[in-house]
Description:
37% of the residues lie in helices and 18% in strands. The chain has helices spanning 13-22, 34-42, 53-64, 78-88, 102-105, 109-133, 180-199, 238-248, 267-279, 299-312, 340-343, 353-365; strands at residues 2-6, 26-31, 69-72, 92-95, 138-144, 159-164, 167-172, 202-208, 210-212, 252-255, 261-266, 287-292, 295-298, 319-322. The mean pLDDT is 96. Bound molecules: nicotinamide-adenine-dinucleotide (NAD) and sulfoquinovose-uridine-C1,5'-diphosphate. Residues 7, 9-13, 31-35, 74-76, 96-98, 100, 118, 122, 142, 144, 208, 210-211, 237 line the site of nicotinamide-adenine-dinucleotide.
Amino acid sequence: xxxxxLGGDGxxxxxxxxxxxxxxxxxxxxxxxxxxxxxxxxxxQSLTPIRTLSERVRAWKEVSGQKIGVEVGDxxxxxxxxxxxxxxxxxxxxxxxxxxxxxxxxxxxxxxxYTQHNNVIGTLxxxxxxxxxxxxxxxxxxGTMGEYGTPNIDIEEGFIEIEHNGRRDVVPYPKQxxxxxxxxxxxxxxxxxxxCRIWGIRSTDxxxxxxxxxxxxxxxxxxxxxxxxxxxxxxxxxxxxxxxQAAVGHPLxxxxxxxQTRGFLDIRDTVRCVELAIENPPEExxxxxxxxxxxxxxxxxxxxxxxxxxxxxxxxxxxxNLPNPRVEAEEHYYNAKHTKLLDLGLKPHYLSxxxxxxxxxxxxxxxxxxxxxxxLPRVDWRGSRRSEGEEVx
Length: 393
Ligand code: NAD
Ligand code: USQ
């Protein structure tokens, strides 16, 4: 199949592009490198020394013999989006190309507006381009488990059957997201579902949990294929951050009580889930939702696991409960369904000691690149300490 990977220079997109290329698909990456620019804005960098996209793609050609195409541009630019959709007429588009950090969206008004504009309008442009130039194309869209929030009832996969005043219907599951970023995904979901209904587009919304890890079978084939690994307060996700904190002797930053529970998955499962979605497309006009995670953990449990794994490597790590910079429930019920990808054949990589070992070892290997000043949280949900125009870094 011909597959476009939008956001293919990012943390999930790059290993997905490699995985799909190895599986025999014709892959084209679309990216505007805004993520690399945001590193400059925040004064941070990936723990791992990532290469430019042109070097990455050249290295992949050398290693695998497979060519990955590249289209550089912004999804907000309609002429650009229309142009690449008209030229490629893909069978599937995998859409990772959004601003994805909750803290970034909560810095101030400008960052909230940027996030929702970039994400919602980029997706809207894509929907019109699919309608006009590739109506058969399957849109595989990255959503997030955070769209649901933490309700006091079981979370279903996208839809819930309810009875109201004696009548029954199946309706979208209620959304109670926890940041302007997570809200942007809710807005996307509504727009995509509407486009499927009125134009007959087919789409899979992958409500992905928090991703951990950095290595896949393809990225470890050559050091030039290395994936990014963020650990800073804005883009670092929690387990990746804990591993780096342990490696540099920084206390593990559990926010509040640490009972916050989320769905998690290994990046090796991210790439496989996308492949499964592509290989099993929905019907014309169908909008479906898969909850894409493999295990649930509280933040406290994750910290305990990292402390244990570090001790086995002779590294002494300790936990520090910080005042929570976010507004979120710190102890709550959490039970989310996630059977649809398993039904399609997903064989999960569960969080194991050996994975924690390898993550800690990567963190130890690149320890000298860690800027400890980037670790402590500074973005505050209750009203940023940063006023507009003030330096972010
Ligand atoms: P990332 O920031 O590493 O990658 C996103 C890529 O998209 C970057 O390379 C960026 O330059 C590009 N991009 C952003 N806006 C663009 C635009 N307007 N035009 C063209 N390119 C643009 O993020 P990631 O961690 O790889 O996440 C990818 C997707 O998966 C996001 O949609 C995110 O919401 C979702 N997701 C990520 C996680 C996670 O833990 N990382 C979990 C759940 C869902
Ligand atoms: N947390 C800590 N300490 C830290 C960092 C985070 O306790 O040092 C806590 C947070 O308060 C939160 C939980 O860990 O309760 C998860 O935070 P996170 O930063 O790892 O993840 P989150 O902000 O939810 O966002 C990430 C990705 C985002 C994706 C989301 C999936 O950045 O793109 O959508 O995970 S989900 O959480 O399922 O919505």
